[in-house]
Amino acid sequence: MNELTGTTLESRTTYSGRVFTAVSDRVRLPNGRETDLDIVRHPPSVILIPMPDEGHIILLRQYRYAIDRWLWELPAGNVETGENPDDAARRECAEETGLAPSTVERLGAFFPTPGYCDENMLFYRLTGLMEMGTSCLDADEVLEPHVVLLSDARRMVSDGTIIDMKTALGLTFI
To answer: Is 2 a member of any domain?
Structure first.
């Protein structure tokens, strides 16, 4: 199937920060109409499913300022410019959990908000976890890693304890 795509006629950066860039684009859509769209440009991210063994995973209890709440989440982070996503998964696991995986397996990729953002979330299972010592958190990260029974993590989704979408989706892979 040969599908038409959109054409960017004009693009203007409206915001550029550490995590993302926002642009305002004038585009021609595949149906020929022209319109203005505001888009968040975000690097790919890695979503990690660290498994110390077959029946357990590591979840983070993490504070999120944007919603002023503590959430239960899978570890995750951005792929740095020029970085291989598999390497980013290894790095983020070490930084957020203090563990180094011997096996990194890519499970899938999803766009969480394609209506206004180009972020691609890459999901990984990490096994053969070895202690590295302490974690190395970014300045804006406040989190606590916890080993959780996989069955308990799934229950936490169904009872509303886990409300983070990437975590709920990630748990469907295992």
So the answer is: no
Give the per-residue SS3 of the chain.
Answer: CCCCCCEEEEEEEEEECCCCEEEEEEEECCCCCEEEEEEEECCCEEEEEECCECCEEEEEEEEEHHHCEEEEECCEEECCCCCCHHHHHHHHHHHHHCEECCEEEEEEEECCCCCCECCCEEEEEEECCEECCCCCCCCCCCEEEEEEEHHHHHHHHHCCCCCCHHHHHHHHHC
Residue 27: which of 4, 8, 5 has the closest Cα?
Answer: 8
Q: Do 29 and 96 lie in a common domain?
A: no
Q: Residue 128 is which amino acid?
A: G
- The token pair that represents 37 in the structure block: 């769209």
Domain of 27 in residue numbering reads as: 7-41
Task: Round to whole Å and give the CA distance between 40 and 72.
Answer: 25
Q: Residue 80 corresponds to which tokens in the numbers above?
A: 């740095």
Tell me the pLDDT tens digit for each residue of 20-58: 999 999 999 999 999 999 999 999 999 999 999 999 999
Strand order in the sheet with 7-16: 7-16, 21-28, 34-41
Cβ 170 vs Cβ 148: under 8 Å: no
Our count of domains for the chain comes to 2
Region 50-79 average pLDDT: 96
